[in-house]
Structure formats: C-alpha cells, structure tokens
Amino acid sequence: MSNVIIRASLAVCGVLLGASALAQSSSPQSAPQAANDYSKPETWLCRPGRKDSCAVDLTTTVIAADGNLTKEPFKANPDASVDCFYVYPTVSNDQTPNSDMNAGPEEHAVVRAQFARFGSKCKLYAPLYRQVTLKTLRAAMAGGAGFPADRMLGYHDVLSAWNYYLQHDNKGRGVVLIGHSQGSAVLTQLIKNEIDGKPIQSRIISALLLGTNVAVPKGKDVGGAFQHMTLCRSPSQLGCVISYAAFRADVPPPSNSRFGRVPEDGMVAACVNPAALDGGKGQMHAYLSTGSNGVSTSSAAPKPWVSTGQTIDTPFVSVPGLLTGECISNEAGSYLAITTHANPSDPRTDEIPGDVVANGVVLKDWGLHLIDAHVAMGNLIDVVAEQSKAYLNK
C-alpha cells in the first residue's frame, strides 16, 4: 500500500468517524460480531510489565540550531503512579471493512510514534480494536458506497477494554485518556456516554483528544461535546480536555478544511495549545520520526535534518527552538498554528515534514494531521507530569 493512501486515509478518519458517525447504527449488511475478551493478553498492544508494542527504542537525536547532535536516551518508569489509556488512529491495512484483532506492523508503529513515550510518566494500556480500516476510508474518499463498515464495532471494543481496565487494573488510580483521529472520535463518544458528569470522572486526570474536532461554545470551555469536562487551562487543572488540529501558520485551514471547524451553530472546534495552556505562543517540544511509518512523515521525501552530512541513527529527532505554536480562532477556523523559525544560514533543517502529499501536491485541507501528536509530544508529556502531581497531591 502506498504511503500516500495511508496518510490520506488517516487525515479523513477524524471526519468520517466523528461522534455523529459513531452514533449511527451498524450497516444492515454487517452481521453481529462477538465481543472481545480483554482478559486475553493478545487483545492488548500495551500492558504494564510486558515486552510489547510499548517496549521499544525511543532514543532521540537532539539537533541544536548550530547543527550539534546529542543523544537523548529514554527510560520508562515501571513504578509510575498513574495510568494512560490510548486509542490509536486509523492505521489498519486489513482488506476488510473492519480490522481483525491481529496486530500488524502498522499498529506497532503508531504506538511507538504516538504513545510509548508516555511510559516515562504513566503505566501504559493500549487495547487492540476492530477499527474501520484504510481500505474502507479509501472507498469513502473515492465516493464509493459498496464497502460498508460497522462503525460501532470499534467503539464497543474500546468500551469493553475500558470496562475491563476499570474492573481489573485501575484500582482507583488516576488515568489519562489519549487518542488521535479515529481514536479521538472513539474516546469522545466514550467520554460522552460513560464518563462526563459521572463518578468515574473524578479519576480522569485529563483527556488528550488530538487531531479531531471537539465542539465547544464560542468563547467558552465547556458545554458542547461535553457538559462537565472543560478544556485545560492550567497544568494543575484535572478532569479536563486538551484538543487541537495542527496547521502550518502560513497555510491556515482552507474553506474545504476537514479540521478546525464543527457544523453546529454557535460552536467552534476546541483548540488548547499544550505549550501554552492559558493562551498565547509557546515553544513546541516536538519528537519527530526519522523514518517513514505511515503516520509520522509526509509522502514527500524528508529533507536532511542537518546539512553537514552527519548521520541520524535514532528513530526520533528533537529540534529545540525551531517550532512555536499558537491557537488561532478566526474565519478560517480554530486551530493550532505551527510556525517554523527557519534560519537558512545555520546547518539545521529549515523544514519539518508532516503534510499530506498526493501526486506531488500538498493537500492543504488536511493541515499537519500526520504529526498532530509528534509536534507537541514533549509538551503533552510535561503537562501529564504536572497534572499527575496535582492528582496525587489531591
């Protein structure tokens, strides 16, 4: 499968599988399927104490503005006092409407790119689920209607996994919910149905709903998608939501944008900047993938990270000082604007990958959907660390 198709499908999944789509019933052609048994180890990509999808090399090359390279090792914290529960985006290459429960390289890769690094702050839980596949999304993108998927199947899988986790693993611990795109849509529905305003909300440290459109009333932080869970505005705030869709600052959402807008009157798409929760600009602490894994780079070949010919042999790079972000709300939408502070006179790259590119053309309506998580990974981890301290002090 081409990387263009993978990336294009990833970008539309937040729209095709939003909360309204998840609320629809299954296709009439879909036969009922048996529930998953999440007591079985193979139904989880990540669980504490295992050598699994989260037990991977996350070593990072830090590239200074002067081109100097240093290695940043990573170490998980097996004794973390809080948990993280993750639902991954559309990555399945299965040739069926919904994926099966056998993890392929694509599921392992997205966990490495988007979730495993949170292991420095929390114990990691990531269930497999029968998501709507890339094949289905390609058919939808092409305008076809002959490949029906059960849009509720993945939601019910995640609900089962969540209930199993609560009954057998949580033991009263605080938990951070993390999702991207289709995963964020599933978690949005889970929060609406099972968490928002219910006793279990007291155990939610925060919900990181990335690369999706969470509706909030214009000028307010709560009252749209959720009636009780408000947007995060300080690192000590608990039970709150961080959500955004990233775009390049000089390429704002066009009129046909799939992200940064919601259809409801009087509502806007939530935008919380992980680098500046209370508003304004902030330095983005990105962890960008050095290889192509279908979710982390554009389909165009990435430019060299440094012009000095030095080899980057780690799976991730960090580029301190290169990127800033700011939530913008205007006629174009409500989105996280990412500015690259390029300096052509220094040896470090002046560009970061992340655009969806088809036939050599950047598809501006999808923004930086491919690196929504990557571009703010360090900031998100810092926020989770501070929120976890606040939760434990409480």
Automatic annotation (TrEMBL):
It holds the Pfam family DUF3089. Residues 1-23 form the signal peptide. InterPro entries: AB_hydrolase_fold (IPR029058), DUF3089 (IPR021440). This is DUF3089 domain-containing protein. Transmembrane segments: none annotated. Keywords: Signal. It comes from Steroidobacter gossypii. The keyword Signal applies. It comes from the Bacteria.
